[in-house]
Amino acid sequence: MTSYFPRHGDHRYRVSHYDLNLTYRVQANRLDGTARLTVTAADALGVLELDFGRLRVGTVTVDGTFARHTHAQGKLRVTLPRPLSPGERAGVEVRYSGRPVPVPSPWGGLGWEELTDGALVAGQPIGAPSWFPCNDRPDDKASYRISVTTRSPYQAIANGVLMATRRSAGNTTWVYEQAEPMASYLASVQIGRYQISPSGGSRLAHPARLATRVRHDFARQSQMMALFGDLFGPYPFTGYTVVVVDDDLEIPVEAQGMSIFGRNHVDGVRGSERLIAHELAHQWFGNSLTVACWQDIWLQEGFACYAEWLWSEASGSLPAGEHARRWHHRLALAPQDFVLADPGPSALFDDRVYKRGALTLHALRSAMGDEAFFPALRAWTAEHRHGTVTTREFAGHVQRHTPRPVEPLLSAWLYDVALPALP
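== Aminopeptidase N ==
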């Protein structure tokens, strides 16, 4: 299968753990970092190629020994002091510094971005190398420890559980541990002047002046969490944090155990509530269950879009069937020029992919019936918890949960260019 991003990722090795120690100066947009990677060779390995953006590399060591390296065109190539045999492990340390800039992409800059007064990370799909050296492919999931030091007026929020905070000379260090495996594009750091508010077992981080709006607009998030727990299975992570930045964002940003919204997404009347449901659903579909390759993006975005419709139905607004009917009508009027299970890089985040993915699930639900469909979804998230998934695996999975043949239905929705009729 052809990679959508052939310059990102390397299948000759895997990373089981990242230990990132970062110091960030907000006003100067200056990042100093030390990344320690635990690497295991899949093939015989003499040179390690890491994805890494435009930050300046200082030293590289492998198991404590200085290693020769070159850094150009988004690749940090490290000559290993001793070649690794398949299955052998090594510890790689990279020290680096500079002004982080986003990775160019068809969707604009991705990764570390300056805010008016702080920073955020928006990594999907190839933005992780903007701030740390990594094996940037979605199926290479690892545990993380992320330590961030910045000036004390600022909060630093990263994936996982906050393990410690230390204050010294006007700075604060925040240490987070993400034990559950995480793809590199989902690793995230948010830095800003935030107030922390508890919200039904979750955390809300937001500018103090937006407190009333944020608490109102996210007040039903705990109900969403309960609904999705019933429909999809238990929430897959230790905690969930929502960050509302004091800047406008075009769209919310997904990260593992975290979602990031712009101030424009909180209006005090829940005008963006469907997006709250969408980003929360990604904790199951995208973060716990991550696509093994980007061709299968519908397994993340189609599921999150369908979760919007399920929340609408459960909260007394339009039922999922009415959303499906309206969106099917709209898509029928749009160009039919992609295949859902392999839409191509240019259509990766096309709204038609999202909506056709949701329609696929609604068609499957209609064919299977709720008594089979939702138990199949719960089994899907349980069997692949914290792993990677493919379209082929999903098709085989749902067939095992119903006596009715679903292959013709799924084949039409996933692999035909023409839009099928709704059941």
